[in-house]
TrEMBL record:
Position of the signal peptide: none
Domain OmpR/PhoB-type span(s) in chain numbering: 138-237
Organism encoding this protein: Hydrogenophaga electricum
DNA-binding region range list: 138-237
SMART domains given in the database record: REC (SM00448), Trans_reg_C (SM00862)
Keyword DNA-binding on entry: yes
Protein name according to UniProt: DNA-binding response regulator
Recorded GO MF terms: DNA binding
4-aspartylphosphate modified-residue sites: 53
Positions of the UniProt region annotated as Disordered: 121-144
Amino acid sequence: MAAQILLLEDEQAIADTLLYVLRSEGFGVTHVRLVQEALAAFRQQPPDLALLDVGLPDGNSFDLCREIRRHSELPIVFLTARSEEIDRVLGLELGADDYVTKPFSPREVCARIRAILRRTRRPAPDAPPARPPEPVPPPPPPAGTLVLDEAAQRVHCRGEPLALTRYEYLLLATLMRRPLRIFTRAELMDLVWADAPDTSERTIDAHIKLLRAKLRERGLESELIQTHRHMGYAIRLPD
């Protein structure tokens, strides 16, 4: 089944180009021009990915992203003419999966969408089972204060999963695989944001701040993630 894309873009020329390329690449696309129309479309039939222009006549997509994130982990790509770093950092902090600045190559946008969907979509089975499977009780949560569960792509804190965005998980998982090892910002950019080469290193600092806040909410020391001045970041796992 073709992946469904929600396209929010008020410039018709840009929308027409994206519609042509996305549909020619096999995507199903719903095109809207206003934030409220996008929100209504999302509520009526959630898509597989949202491609959102930032500046719209009735608001901006940052507010729409906040609303979507209250209910869903839907992959989101921002599409904007604004290239200010603060806008990009804000978009990523809100949970966006990518950020494309105009002018852009429509084929590159398609490639980024495919890469995101490969990471976030689970393949459907080839055929339905002949009979419903027997219910399997969920496994017990991992033991320990802070545990990396790579199979489920989660980090458990005292037996409960942390609510992390994709990049927050990838960053924390990278640090936890090598406790006390200092990762430079360049290394973290290569390991965590390899699919977003236009992202700046300030994004790392913003995500570290968010992770520390979430650890504090669970009663852990935020200093578990250590800043090594002029060097990078490391994590000290609790006992």
